[in-house]
From TrEMBL:
This is Outer membrane protein. The keyword Membrane applies. Residues 214-286 form the POTRA domain. Residues 313-610 form the Bacterial surface antigen (D15) domain. GO terms for cellular component: outer membrane. PANTHER family: BACTERIAL SURFACE ANTIGEN (D15) DOMAIN-CONTAINING PROTEIN, SORTING AND ASSEMBLY MACHINERY SAMM50 PROTEIN FAMILY MEMBER. It is found in: Membrane. Keywords: Membrane. InterPro entries: Bac_surfAg_D15, BamA/TamA_POTRA, D15-like. Gene3D superfamilies: membrane protein fhac, membrane protein fhac: a member of the omp85/tpsb transporter family. The lineage of its organism: Bacteria, Pseudomonadati, Thermodesulfobacteriota, Desulfovibrionia, Desulfovibrionales.
Length: 610
């Protein structure tokens, strides 16, 4: 019986493959001939002979030094043979990583040919199977605390791969740390290949360490952020059984505050006297003030600009104060917002906001002011909800739905209740995940002539990564809302529903989709719109986005509806920058209305459309 042993050198194999893969050019089997001009030297091609599956052959192409340096030919046949010998060693590691321990590679070089022909004759040999997995303690004692092969994701028997073994080794540590053993250590790994029956056995020697409880938490690196604020976010209590998941949850929560450039949460060695594991939090604060601005252009709205200032640590407890303003041809507004985390509990966020706006739109002209205060709770990492109280005052100089009225004034007290789910992987440019929000707000009129009504709203957006390379993401969104309990024209025009424009149905001008009086939009009692984008990232810098938008504003709050769904289609360009993608979209209405719709609309701004 022939037996070979392979220890932790297998870990180096994966690193080697990754490094070389970044330098090589993948290819299929057969001759690889470079047609471009090459520098002086011994020009050559590389051939592979033997029965190899395409995936294994592609790995050989990636790690081959002879292939990677084909555009830099050696000065002599001897130097080329040296490259081939290096390839043989790299190929052996590839075969071992795939359970082909008996593979052989024979090298031949025909230097008389033009170009020279370097041939690898390969016999991959039989596939070795994983037949035995053993976990033991260093002293050979009780191993009942150690995980079973099944918990590590290993099936016996099954085809051997190095990746499965390395993944399982990582999981040993993860599982035991989740079971209150922070000092777990994998002391040794032995992989034995038996050439007689093509079997592989793996033996891990693991020191599980003692079970522990959470010890005291210490902080380092704080300058302006209060330690009490961060201590209040800790999800465990001292003396509670240690759980690595809680440590990672806390690290993410601290990082999500946006107050730190670096966050490191480490578990120190268990104190044998107390059985407690101290937690050390090392932090590097980032600058807490930001000034930001931007410009955009939309065919239906004209040029626009915005400017904002933000302080993310106003009183040392993560309090945020933000002031912003924006101006375009149809709207100018200014707003201020304040947020106080840890309002009642560490999961509660107090928010207050004030906004004043001047609007000169197709449907109406006037001014409005809104003030709200709310309390929002984070139930899980993705789910949050909130309740608030607000007041909105409006002065409508011109209402196109009621041209006989002018200088009308409205006032409403409203009580918004919200629920949200955010499972996106990225806020600025999501690749996968779901975003869902729903709110319900009763409005009570405070001035004579103002009706009471109920205003539900929802937004649902989904992101699906179809291909990793090239990056291909299918993004979809649906938006809806209604004013229930009153006629549409009895609601102030700045609270009616409108469709059309860059954030709604591209291709149609702003507010132009829905109930109309001649060429003038009057606003609806409800709304439904949807968007679908195929985001194709052609290169790291540039992307192309074909899209389809649709929907309308309805004259009634509830079905049956009589307005048709309007569709707009277009093509977008994305230029990816560190602050988010720059967006340029051109869209056309698919149901163009005479004397109302232009043949196309153009939009330019920063950030994805949704």
């Amino acid at each position: 019986m022939r037996t070979k042993r392979f220890s932790k050198g297998l870990a180096g194999l994966v690193l080697l493959l990754a490094l070389v893969a970044g330098l090589a050019v993948p290819a299929g089997a057969g001759t690889r001939v470079e047609q471009a001009k090459v520098p002086p030297g011994l020009a050559y091609v590389v051939r592979y002979e033997g029965q190899l599956d395409p995936e294994l052959l592609d790995l050989l192409h990636q790690v081959s030094k002879a292939e990677a340096l084909r555009d830099a030919p050696p000065d002599s046949a001897l130097l080329l043979e040296r490259r081939a010998e290096e390839d043989k060693a790299a190929f052996a590691k590839v075969f071992q990583s795939r359970g082909r321990f008996a593979a052989t590679v024979a090298v031949s070089l025909d230097s008389a040919a033009t170009p020279a022909v370097l041939t690898y004759a390969i016999d991959p040999g039989p596939q070795f199977d994983l037949r035995s997995v053993v976990l033991k303690t260093p002293d050979g004692g009780d191993a009942s605390a150690l995980p079973t092969p099944e918990r590590l994701g290993l099936t016996v028997p099954s085809p051997f791969t190095a990746k499965a073994i390395l993944d399982a080794e990582t999981k040993i540590t993860e599982l035991l740390r989740d079971e209150a053993r922070p000092d777990v250590k994998v002391d040794n790994r032995q992989v034995t290949a038996n050439f007689a029956d093509h079997a592989v056995s793996v033996v891990w020697t693991v020191s599980p360490g003692p079970k522990a409880t959470f010890g005291p938490t210490s902080f380092a690196g704080l300058t302006t952020v209060k330690e009490s604020y961060l201590a209040g976010m800790i999800p465990w209590k001292q003396g509670q059984p240690y759980d690595a998941k809680d440590v990672e949850t806390y690290r993410r929560a601290v990082n999500a505050t946006g107050l730190f450039a670096a966050v490191q949460v480490e578990t120190a060695a268990v104190d044998p006297a107390t059985g407690q594991a101290p937690i050390k939090v090392s932090l590097t604060e980032r600058k807490h003030r930001t000034v930001k601005g931007g410009v955009d252009y939309k065919t239906d709205e004209g040029p626009g600009a915005n400017l904002g200032w933000e302080h993310r640590n106003l009183f040392g407890g993560g309090e945020k104060l933000a002031v912003a303003g924006s101006a375009s041809g149809i709207e100018q507004f200014a707003e201020a917002a304040f947020e106080k985390p840890d309002a009642l509990t560490p999961k509660d966020l107090f928010k207050a906001k004030a906004r004043v706006a001047n609007e000169d739109k197709k449907a109406y002209k006037g001014q409005n002011a809104t003030a709200t205060a709310s309390l929002r709770r984070q139930f899980t990492d993705a789910v949050s909800g909130g309740v608030g109280l607000g007041y909105r005052a409006s002065r409508i100089e011109e209402d196109e739905s009621r041209p006989w009225e002018s200088d009308a004034r409205y006032g409403f007290v409203f009580l918004p209740v919200e629920l949200g789910y955010d499972g996106r992987d990225d806020v600025l440019d999501p690749q996968k995940g779901l975003l869902a929000t729903a709110s319900l707000a009763p409005y009570w009129g405070t001035l004579s002539g103002a009706d009471n009504f109920l205003r539900p709203e929802f937004t649902l957006a989904h992101y699906l990564k179809i291909l990793e390379k090239p990056g291909l993401v299918l993004a979809t969104r649906a938006v809806g809302g209604a004013n229930i309990g009153t006629d549409s024209e009895n609601v102030t025009p700045d609270l009616r529903w409108y469709a059309g424009g860059s954030g709604s149905i591209r291709g149609y001008s702003y507010q132009s989709v829905g109930p109309m009086r001649g060429k003038t939009p009057v606003g609806g009692a409800s709304l439904f719109t949807f968007s679908t984008e195929l985001r194709w990232r052609v290169t790291d810098l540039v992307g192309i986005v074909p899209f389809l938008d649709g929907g309308t504003a309805f004259g009634k709050a509830l079905p049956p509806y009589d307005q048709p769904i309007m569709l707009g289609a277009g093509l977008g360009l994305r230029v990816y920058t560190p602050v988010g993608p720059v967006r340029v979209d051109v869209a056309t209405p698919l149901a163009r209305r005479q004397d109302i719709d232009d043949i196309a609309q153009f939009y330019c701004s920063i950030g994805q459309s949704f």
